Amino acid sequence: MLTLKNLGNVESPVHxxxxxxxDIKAGxxxxxxxxxxxxxxALYIDKILKxxxxxxxxxxxxxxxxxxxxxxxxxxxxxxxxxxxxxxPSGDRSIRIxxxxxxxxxxxxxxxxxxxxxTSPDIHIVSMTITEGGYNINEVTGLFDLDTPAxxxxxxNPTNPTTVFGYVVEGLRRRRDAGLNAFxxxxxxxxxxxxxxxxxxxxxxxxxxxxxxxxxxxxxxxxPNSMVDRITPTVTADIAKQLNTASGLDDALPVVAExxxxxxxxxxxxxxxxxxxxxxxxFVSDVTDYEHVKIRMLNASHIxxxxxxxxxxxxxxxxxxxxxxxxxxxxNFLTRDVIPTLKxxxxxxxxxxxxxxxxxxxxxxxxxxxLRIASDGCAKIQVFWTQTVRDLLLDGxxxxxxxxxMAAYLEMLRGVNAxxxxxxxxxxxxxxxxxxxxxxxxxxxxxxxxxxDAWRDLDSHVLDQRVVELRKVIRxxxxxxxxxxxxx
Length: 488
Ligand code: CS2
Fold this sequence. Notes:
The chain is α/β, with parallel strands linked by helices. The chain contains 19 helices and twelve strands. The strands form three sheets. A five-stranded parallel β-sheet has the order 6-3-2-7-8, sandwiched between helices. Helix 6 (164-177) crosses helix 7 (194-209). The chain is globular. It holds the Pfam family Mannitol_dh.
């Protein structure tokens, strides 16, 4: 097993930490210890710990259930060590052990201990990867949703929280009362202006709890925006086995990622930060153009590729992007619908960026899953496509490709692909009533889903009609027939 005690037995080609994990103190609490965080923020932190050993990370999981309990037990058994395998498209691999995570707490098991860390003067940053949909913002009102049961519960029991909002705001309340500094709240999710969204969410919660506290947080905490990027597939049991065979390790929690990674961050830290530039973080005064390019090009084309790819039975992204019709559709989408309304940040050429995205998608070494990309499509469509759809609608432009993407999404939700196989993506946001819209025989019913809420204020009848037509074609003749109907 991979543990601190056994680190001495680890053999080449695995790279060991260049610091002694026992010397590391925590300076960061991170909510949502998923694979992306472990391959991204944790790696950047890992690179600075030798020089700055007070910036280790305490990971916090918020969900209940068997899976979460097992994951926590595995982290604890491995002293929170894990291996990261980085794969280049050429097939070259590099494997390193990350020791930046110095503890892992499952919040439902240890609520007070999570709060104690949040109140510790040693903690200066609270970061999070809680998914695009995790900020509890209602797309129609644009406000933090106070009506969800978990939020209501945390507002009624502020000292016994269950949500990230409840924990962070209670932690800040205790810091204020103890005369401590507020910490930086650093979102690392794929959202446009993730810091502003986090600000809206945490202040929205705090305002409902105690306006004076909200005011203190607004004045003292900071919420830097950032653009984060690294493709990090799901690690299935089979993949874990392959990774361990290649590394020679016995790691219950291996992570695999592409060799590319990028983090562009605003330098707004309430209580200090490590020298992240040393690890490759680009500090800029405004991340807007970087995040638009990343989200509207990479993430938007990921779902544009994978919704239809699932209908065609492709399991992996590299297979899907090698399908000429699917690739052409993504290229047309980017060059005709997205790039014309994007502003390139300094030093970025959008045509080259498109080529690099397509080449990253075609990296076969990672076997990234189409189902991973297509899951939680409801939140992803709103975050990744909205700006493009709004621009197209407002300019009265051809909406065929977005209509195709929406049609493919709605057909995919029905769970049967062109080979007659069933494959269900996970869509945590849909209620039973909305499920009925998905199964309805009326091709227009699905357009009422919240995935499409963010442009409901605009006249979308041409787009909606096209979605209905394309769904008919997909159902009667298949996804390839629908693709061939799109303008060349
Ligand atoms: C993907 C992202 O989940 C998704 O839809 O597009 O996870 C993507 O792999 C990362 O954002 C890459 O940085």
